[in-house]
Design a protein that fits this description.
- The chain is α/β, with parallel strands linked by helices.
- It has one domain (about 5-220): Metallo-beta-lactamase, Chain A (4-Layer Sandwich), CATH 3.60.15.
- The chain is built from six helices and 15 strands.
- The strands form three sheets. The protein has a seven-stranded mixed β-sheet, with helices on one face. Strands 8-9-10-11-14 form a five-stranded mixed β-sheet. A three-stranded mixed β-sheet has the order 13-12-15.
- Strand 10 (about 145-150) and strand 11 (about 155-160) form a beta hairpin.
- It is globular.
- It starts with a strand and ends with a helix.
- The model has no long low-confidence stretch (mean pLDDT about 95).
Length: about 220
């Protein structure tokens, strides 16, 4: 269920996948749902008290058709920021290969995508965007990025981990490009994560209570 997570953060529930809206230094959208999510995203932004054209920045956690599908549906000219390893895929300059289950799924999803018709900005590990710090967390995709804001008390983790609202877990192996790198990326995130109260995944319910306990439990399972 979508709605307020904090006074300045909104969960946009797109049924199968999550997007988020943050009133940061500029109005910021985290991910953009499925190709047919555009109208829902715009209505959810209005329900939060804004107009869709007020979105000035979109932070993309990674390339998958359920996270970049409605990028072109956001009106105006928001800056679109994506991890360097996924840049050419998001821009439509390359298409996924067919060498594994994950790439085959991405190749199928690409059929439904319309790449943005404007330049994209890249982000690398440690870059700061507004109140956010980018943490490169490859494995699910080569350019997967988590965006962490101590000021906003939140970590947007894309598909690095999933949540059932109480616990965190890794996605199924067949949804990852490199499961070994997922393990390294989880450790990287946990090592650098400030004591935020909210962990907001791409799938599942955001963790708004017991976040630190869930993180400690995850460490015991690694």
């Amino acid at each position: 269920m979508g709605g307020h997570l904090t006074e300045r953060i909104w969960h946009l529930d797109l049924d199968y996948v999550n997007a988020y809206l943050v009133d940061d230094d500029v109005l910021t959208l985290i991910d953009a749902g499925l190709p047919w999510s555009g109208s829902t995203i715009k209505s959810e932004i209005r329900a939060a008290g804004f107009e869709p054209a007020q979105v000035e920045r979109i932070l993309v956690t990674h390339y998958d058709f359920d996270h970049v599908g409605a990028l072109t549906a956001v009106p105006g000219s928001p800056e679109i920021i994506v991890g360097a390893g996924d840049l050419d895929l998001v821009a439509g300059r390359t298409v996924p290969g067919l060498s594994g289950v994950k790439q085959a799924i991405q190749r199928f999803g690409a059929v439904f995508l319309t790449p943005p018709n404007r330049p994209l900005s890249t982000v690398k590990d440690g870059d700061e965007i507004g109140s956010f710090t980018a943490i490169h967390t490859p494995g699910h995709s080569p350019g997967h990025v988590a965006y962490v804001s101590e000021a906003r008390d939140v970590a947007f983790i894309g598909d690095l981990l999933r949540s059932d609202g109480e616990t965190l877990s890794r996605p199924p192996w067949y949804l990852n490009r490199d499961t070994v790198r997922i393990d390294h990326s989880v450790e990287r995130l946990l090592d650098r994560l400030p004591p935020v109260e909210i962990v907001a995944p791409g799938h599942g319910e955001p963790l708004v209570q017991g976040c630190q306990q869930a993180i400690r439990a995850l460490r015991t399972r690694t």
